[in-house]
Amino acid sequence: MAMQKAILPAEEYAEDIELSIRLRRTLTTFDSEYSFLGCYEGDLLDTDTNVLAGKVRLFVVDLEGADKYGRDAPWTLDLEAATEPYIALLSEEAGNFGPAVLKILGEEFVSNSNMLIIDRLELLPAYRGRGLGLKCMNACMRHLSAGCRIAAIKPFPLQFEPADRTVDEWQDALAFKSLSHDKRASTKRLKQHYEQLGFKHVPRTDLMVRDLYE
User: Fold this and answer.
1) Which of 37, 68, 97, 167 has the smallest number of CB atoms closer than 10 Å to its CB?
2) Environment class of residue 66 by beta-carbon count within 10 Å: exposed (0-12), middle (13-18) or buried (19+)?
3) pLDDT in tens, 17-48
């Protein structure tokens, strides 16, 4: 996930700019394994000008529902390349998280392993460094996390993704080349950034989680 160049304290959110989030989800009228892996994609719009400020993609993962239909949690998360890494959060015991996640939650066992995965949040350069990304993430958790026990993210600076040779105006507008070339330092800053929303690193993984019951 790529976000701000600078890290701002949560209390220093920008007051002069607000963003609205318009999400899209496609539903089918037939039973599908993807009905347990709800993908939401949307635009972040400047509320004053209605111009595009960024984009977001999230997954609401209904592992409880999948289990009732005889589809195990790893199988469900493996349906999408973007959600496959989150299998690392699960225990071999059905309906439960692994020990590292349980320790973060302060639980020995949970019966609800549903999760909200914030997969990508991209902001154009003019909107970075203002705390707007955190505000959008917080809004997504507030409105889309019903029935989920955790929110999960994978802090990864998008400027280090493999370059796409095709011409993409959106990627050019994001100006990733102007961001830091130090992958380790950039990833560390992202982790510190997300900690402001209560996310905690899951040991031995590249993931962070937040207890939505707190």
Assistant:
1) 167
2) buried
3) 899 999 999 777 667 778 899 999 999 999 99
93 token code pair: 């015991």
Three-class secondary structure assignment of the chain = CCCCCCCCCHHHCCCCCCEEEEEECCCCCCCCHHHHEEEEEEEEEECCCCCEEEEEEEEEECHHHHHHCCCCHHHHHCCCCCCHHHHHHECCCCCCECHHHHHHHCCCCCCCCCEEEEEEEEECHHHCCCCHHHHHHHHHHHHHCCCCCEEEECCCCHHHCCCCCCCCHHHHHHCHHHCCCCHHHHHHHHHHHHHCCCCEECCCCCCEEEECCC
What tokens were used for 138?
A: 């917080």
